[in-house]
Design goal:
alpha+beta; two-stranded antiparallel ribbon; Glycosyltransferase; 12% strand; globular; 3 domains; two-stranded antiparallel sheet
Length: 458
């Protein structure tokens, strides 16, 4: 009897070991669930919601999410998970442009700058954030889809119409200082608030540069002065406790502060010169290593169980520490200098770990990111795992993504995920060599090169 029990026990062990997922299966499942997440954002009319929540529904859409959603459609098609992407993208473009019989048209200014947030049923503006960056994230996603589905004449026609209707030069300010408009007025002109290099507005600069036919235009001058050679971009230096120095591009160099990590991922997604440049890749790598060092310098969190594979800091729903009180809300988290931790200059007071930011660095540190993603996925504490809500035709409620958690309260789990911020995970998983690889993005964000042959997955 003992021998029989022992034999059964060994069989169960062997069966259990063989039933466990391989690392490759884990990563592919995470990517597929990420694609499912973007399908959940998509409304029946093709527009995209601002977030997916386990607690509430929203009628608010996001222009930036449209761009990220269109990229996810290309990823899903390349992975063989959908055959309906072309038709769905065309439906999305028709709702943006008003080419439908549903009365849907995405609101825009008199000079065709689109609204950031809108009513998901009508496209009518919510608020007054007429946003150059959200306009251009949407357009960039459409251009990505055009490159991928370049043989679909109707899709190409709609993308060209969208791209050509927006005069990018209206967003460009003083090239000497690198100004790009943060916001436009509904009647057309610039609102008057500007951003300076370096941040995600490099996407706006890239579209403006390529749309201009005049080498002496303001857009071309701004690009050449600030982005043509990243050596001239401002940086802040993060010095780890071990003495390592990391030079991180930022728009806050004067105050020695750092930019949020999503800026590197958005530019990698949509700016081909960033994607293919060894200098920009090294700048992105420096930002990743600075972020990882910042978390590993946190002795206060190590005492609570923080492991070396836990890192990542970026924007999105999280915990905020307001005068000692923890509240949920939207945070634009950043690393800070060691001496600033716990002070008013701490830019992640909620101690939010954003696994999407960690994943988004896979284009420049694939081995490290793969290793750390697998480690956190297998961590018995279950940190960062979020179950997608059940949606008919998409998920039965048993699909998990990796998102955020907080060392302010390890029992807290976020109830929502914003599509624009989660795009860092989409990029990171898809860019892994065993998935689509960086070549996929280098190919399909090369929007302005008509000679580029079609990418072929190996």
């Amino acid at each position: 009897m003992k021998k029989l029990v022992s034999t059964i026990f060994m069989v169960l062990i062997i069966f259990g070991a063989s039933a466990q997922k391989t690392d490759h299966q884990i990563l592919e499942e995470l990517l597929q669930n990420t694609v499912k997440y973007y399908q959940m954002l998509r409304a029946d009319n093709g527009l995209y919601h601002d977030f997916v929540s386990t607690k509430e529904e929203t009628n608010r859409g996001s222009a930036a999410n449209i761009g990220m959603g269109l990229v996810s459609q290309c990823v899903a098609t390349e992975m063989g998970w959908t055959t309906t992407a072309e038709a769905e993208i065309i439906e999305t473009l028709e709702s943006i442009l008003g080419h439908n019989n549903k009365g849907i048209k995405l609101d825009r200014t008199a000079n065709n700058c689109f609204i950031h947030f809108y009513d998901i049923e009508t496209g009518k503006a919510i608020g007054e954030d007429w946003s150059p960056i959200d306009t251009d994230l949407m357009i960039s996603g459409a251009l990505f889809a055009k490159r991928y589905f370049h043989n679909n004449e109707k899709l190409v026609k709609y993308v060209d119409e969208l791209y050509n209707m927006v005069d990018q030069s209206q967003f460009i300010g003083d090239p000497e200082t690198g100004k790009i408009s943060l916001k436009m007025k509904e009647e057309g002109p610039v609102f008057g608030n500007w951003t300076l290099p370096y941040n995600e507005y490099m996407v706006v600069a890239w579209l403006a540069k390529n749309q201009s036919t005049d080498p002496n235009s303001t857009a071309n001058k701004l690009w050449e002065k600030w982005y043509g050679n990243p050596d001239g971009l401002p940086t802040a230096i993060y010095t780890s406790k071990s003495g390592e120095e990391f030079h991180v591009m930022t728009d806050l160099a004067k105050t020695r502060e750092f930019t949020s990590n999503f800026t590197f991922m958005f530019n990698y997604l949509f700016v081909n010169e960033f994607t293919t440049s060894p200098k920009y890749q090294e700048a992105m790598r420096q930002a990743a290593l600075a972020d990882r060092a910042w978390w590993n310098d946190r002795d206060d969190l190590k005492a609570r169980g923080l492991q070396a594979y836990e890192w990542g800091t970026t924007a999105g729903y999280g915990l905020r520490n307001n005068n000692g009180e923890l509240t949920e809300g939207y945070c634009v988290d950043k690393i800070c200098h060691v001496e600033s931790v716990g002070t008013n200059n701490d830019r992640n007071k909620g101690k939010n770990v954003a696994l999407s930011a960690m994943a988004g660095y896979s284009p420049v540190l694939p081995d490290l990111v793969r290793q750390d993603l697998i480690s956190i996925y297998k961590d018995p504490r279950g940190l960062g795992k979020m179950a997608l809500p059940a949606r008919e035709g998409i998920s039965d409620g048993g699909d998990y993504i990796l998102w955020k958690y907080s060392y302010s309260d390890l029992n807290w789990r976020p109830s929502r995920v914003e599509g624009v911020d989660y795009a860092c995970m989409l990029l990171g998983l898809a860019a892994l060599p065993e998935m689509l690889g960086v070549e996929f993005f280098q190919q399909y964000n090369d929007f302005f090169n008509p000679e580029m042959p079609a990418y072929k997955r190996q």
